[in-house]
Specification:
454 residues, 16-stranded parallel β-sheet, three-stranded parallel β-sheet, F-box_dom, single chain, alpha/beta, F-box_AtFBL13-like, FBD, 19 strands, 13 helices, F-box domain
Amino acid sequence: MGSRDFISSLPDEVLGKKILSLLPTKLVVSTSVLSKRWRNLFHFVDNFDLEDSTPLRNADGFSDFMEKTVALLSNCPIKRLTLNSHYERSSVDRWIRSALERGCLELNLQCQYAHSLDIRIFSSNTLVKLTLSSYRTFLRGNVPVEGTVFFPALKTLSLGAVAANPALYNWLISGCPVLEELFIRDFGDYRPTWTRSVVSASIKRLTIFFHFPRNTDPYQDNAEIKTPNLEFLDYSALLSDGSNVDYLDSLAEARLDLRLWELPTTYQFGEVTNLVAAIRNVKTLHLSTGSLEAFYYRCYTMPVFNKLLYLSIESDKENGWHALPRLLLKSPNLQTLVIKGLVHKVTYRCGSACACTIKPKKKELYKRYLDESPPSEVEGRCCLSTCRVKVLEISSYGGSLREVKQMGHFLGKLKYLETVKIGVEEDNNNNSEHLLANLMTLDRASSKCKIQFI
């Protein structure tokens, strides 16, 4: 019985849109030599992934391939185009313009070398998602007439190390009237490429990664965020000299990875008071260890988080829980507390949030040289005994004496606790029963409290 070619028996539209569109474009183009039918199938392909690993000096082959491919696409609609190569500026501009003229919905441009793009090519009534990610991309050109809309359908914009003058950058954002998600990633040894300003009434999700650790110059100006309809914020950066953030009343979730300056001459640089006040309406808040430090040292007025239901913090042995007592006292409706690792730096400032013990002599030094009292004494009450947390989640639990002591502190103080979920370190996965047995011997302030390992 002869073999049957099932693939060739499939309809042209299925072969083109469902199969060939999933393959690298170079491979798709190569199928055109199989037969006349396969050559015609190329017109059903609407997703193109064009990648060249050839160094710039040997890129002629890829350039020729691209020119032939663009010619084949003369009458083809394009749904998604990914362009990742070492190519010259004029060719890139032409290829992008060709894709946008064919109704492209998603454009992903990745440059391996410093590259400049003419702002005039960025005009499309159909584009929904635009990603510019590169070693360093420069937008060039003059700012068009004010009010000109050039991406009326764009909902997602990702900028990775993209440079533009402030006027051009602001025009880029304002030219996207229905933009819902903005992703900015900027890092390296150069000055920042974005203008540290996001102003948009339509943005709902905002992610910013901004990291230049060598000097404070890029951080002298205030970071500006004016996004009244923002629902999600993920912000990672060293502290700026200040911030101009409007109250984010629609914000439901925030992830903050704030970092203090470590150089002796700059460790007191920056503040986060305005930023913290702006996120006071969040329901879910995730804080890195650096953020806890920033909240304690550089936030001068802690707001009340009346809507906060879920708080997640990270721990490491280099930083303490300085801000946790005040955070808990300022979160009257908190229901879930997640702690990623119980091990943290033993410090006088953790107050009633933990079971840290500090030697009397060291305690006196804190009072004498820092002229401060622990948070629990400042507030006049234990932050745990008044906390209404019902669910406590602990990850990376190792079962050390210090961790058991800390768990005893939580269980003995949290009066409304109903569920404790514990994730064990990988090295202790086979020891879960023993770890659970140790915890079951601890006194609990809540008769409803149940402990489970996850």
